[in-house]
Design goal:
The protein contains four helices and seven strands; from the N terminus they run E-E-E-E-H-E-H-E-E-H-H. It has 147 residues and is of the alpha/beta class. The chain is globular, with a radius of gyration of 14 Å.
Length: 147
């Protein structure tokens, strides 16, 4: 499985839009293998979707992002683990060791996936729906989310 971390310097970018590089890692036989860095596209989420599709990335790990960007990524078939922050190497190792649940220790504060715990009213929190869609997309690709 190929994972892409949207980074600024040596950390996962706090906002997807501020990422300057994309770090690619592959998990094979339980080991994490760096696959290189790419410059993050400066022209928006559609260019990012094209680049992720070209590289064959199965999962994008990023910091905060807009609902529109998240929806576009998920609709295009890119699985997304948003609202994650920390040193890129630590985040990559947590993912390699424990899969998506391993990223929970790196969740950013605020209303990210699962952080609002249903307290948000009005338009409602789409966290559970987006998370379910992300897991379904991973399963459709034949990947187990916890890999």
């Amino acid at each position: 499985m190929l994972v892409c971390l949207a980074c600024y310097g040596d950390r996962v970018a706090a906002l997807l839009e501020t990422a300057t590089q994309l770090r690619l890692y592959r998990k094979e036989d339980g080991a994490l293998h760096p696959c290189g860095d790419l410059p993050a596209p400066e022209t928006g989420v559609l260019a990012l979707i094209d680049l992720l599709t070209e590289t064959g990335a199965d999962l994008l790990v990023c910091g905060g992002l807009s609902g529109c960007a998240l929806a576009a990524l998920v609709q295009s078939g890119v699985a997304v683990a948003p609202w994650v922050g920390g040193a890129a190497s630590d985040v990559a190792n947590a993912w390699a060791t424990a899969g998506l649940p391993g990223l929970d220790a790196f969740r950013l504060p605020g209303c990210g996936l699962g952080n609002c715990r249903g307290r948000r009213m009005g338009a409602g929190c789409r966290a559970r729906a987006v998370k379910a869609l992300r897991v379904r997309k991973l399963n459709e690709k034949g990947s187990v989310p916890n890999e």
